[in-house]
Design a protein that fits this description.
The chain has helices at 3-12, 40-61, 73-76, 80-96, 114-126, 128-132, 143-153, 227-239, 253-261, 276-288, 343-354, 363-370, 373-376, 384-387, and strands at residues 23-25, 68-70, 103-108, 134-139, 161-164, 179-184, 193-197, 204-211, 217-222, 272-274, 292-299, 313-318, 321-325, 336-338, 358-362, 392-397. A hairpin with a 5-residue loop joins strand 8 (204-211) and strand 9 (217-222). It is built from 14 helices and 16 strands. It folds into two domains: 3-191 and 276-397, 3-Layer(aba) Sandwich (Rossmann fold); 193-273, no CATH class. By secondary structure, it is an alpha/beta fold.
Length: 398
């Protein structure tokens, strides 16, 4: 199968996929009292203690040494993270849509439903008129998470929320009216294709995965690109032709050829992982949500990635310890596979596909503008919300 199909099966297969089994999203319980915390090291110590308490509670119900547990900024900084996003949406809604349209919000991959709950709580408390015209729709592929989100919505907002339990890639409804579309920390788990290049001809070859009768995985490359990967390369070449971005062919050809003529050198370049599923998502937005306003945040770089360009981090947790590995060819369902997003390139691709204008900022710059620093500032003067996600960016449709 193609590498993107292998990765998608590993992450999302309803019977054994990573997000269908063993995964729990950390919830901090009560919000952190950041003003009472000395500094960032103390915050990380308190966070570690709450992690242990949370997993102890899970183990009291059912012990699972292979449980996968991870956190999101929504949970770490609740409700302040969501309130900053709500301020951004309400300000833009009032600027251009009110009173001609309702405020309709779609969220893809809503986790525990905390972002939805905090946004609706904030709008109801600060702007009842906007709240009266607000509708929140969650698109969730996981049946178990959809159930958790339904429970969250029942805490005062059941009449405002609709949970749609399906993959965004199966979406077939046309939504012509303006809406906000939230995609927070979901791009990193979109499946990618892998490409390697012939160092002598620059020809791209596409990676595929072979699984033999013993269940062992083998990666091989073919010169015949499938239409999706081929389309991504064409769109990127046109949309980002004036942008410098990381690529296996960036070095001079003579240097590449000399390196690959050395004894024991590989006959192909380093792998490049291309976000074909993300391109597909942009097509869905363009085709089915033509008046959308995208709000997305994700990592633009990740430590401990596997070898290659735009390569993923592949890791699992075993007995409460993180175990990284060096290849995405791992037992399906037991490993998280997450990719960085090149926001410069993907902004170009998004604009080319949707025709919409965008703005990309750092996570720190966006939340410095829309959050209230006194809520997340520690006694040292450090702002936890601004300081913890230095490797993340935010992209919005303008």
């Amino acid at each position: 199968m193609l590498m993107r199909d292998f990765i998608e099966d590993s992450l999302y297969n309803p019977h054994y996929g990573y997000f269908s089994k063993n995964v729990s999203i950390f919830s901090s319980g009560a919000p952190f009292e950041f003003n009472q915390i000395k500094d960032e090291p103390e915050f990380e110590r308190i966070l570690g203690e709450r992690y242990t308490q949370f997993e102890d509670q899970l183990d009291a119900v059912e012990y699972n040494e292979a449980r996968q547990l991870w956190h999101t900024p929504t949970e770490l900084f609740k409700p302040y993270y969501a309130e900053a996003i709500a301020r951004y949406m309400v300000a833009n809604y009032k600027l251009s849509l009110f009173p001609y349209h309702d405020m309709v919000i779609y969220e893809m991959g809503a986790g525990n439903g905390t972002l939805m709950l905090n946004i609706l709580d904030y709008i109801r408390a600060t702007d009842p008129d906007v709240y009266a015209r607000t509708k929140f729709r969650i698109i969730e592929i996981s049946a178990s998470l959809a159930s958790i989100q339904t429970t969250a919505a029942s805490k005062g907002h059941a009449d405002k929320v609709e949970i749609i339990n399906k993959s965004i890639f199966d979406w077939d409804q046309y939504v012509p009216t303006p809406c906000f579309f939230l995609a927070m920390e979901v791009f990193d788990n979109f499946a990618h294709d892998v490409i390697r290049y012939d160092p002598f001809t620059d020809e791209p070859l596409q990676g595929q995965v072979l699984i033999d009768n013993d269940g062992d995985f083998y990666e091989f490359y073919t010169r015949q690109l499938d239409p999706v990967a081929s389309r991504f390369l064409r769109v990127r070449d046109v949309a980002s032709r004036d942008r410098d971005y990381a690529h296996p062919l960036n070095s001079p050809r003579w240097m590449r050829q000399l390196r690959h003529k050395m004894p024991l050198s590989p006959n192909l370049t380093l792998p490049e992982y291309i976000p074909t599923r993300l391109m597909h998502f942009f097509h869905i937005l363009s085709r089915h949500f033509p008046a959308h306003r995208l709000i997305t945040s994700d990592f633009h770089s990740l430590p401990n990635a596997t070898p290659g360009i735009n390569a993923p981090v592949v890791q699992t947790r075993y007995q409460r310890k993180t175990v990284p590995v060096t290849t995405p060819l791992v037992q399906q369902g037991y490993f998280d596979i997450l990719f960085p997003t090149d926001f410069g390139v993907m902004e170009d691709v998004y604009r080319a596909i949707t025709g919409r204008l965008t703005r990309v900022t750092t996570h720190e710059d966006f939340f410095a503008r829309w959050s209230y620093p006194e809520e997340t500032q520690m006694r040292s003067g450090e702002d936890a919300l601004l300081g913890l996600y230095k490797n993340a960016s935010v992209m919005v449709t303008v």
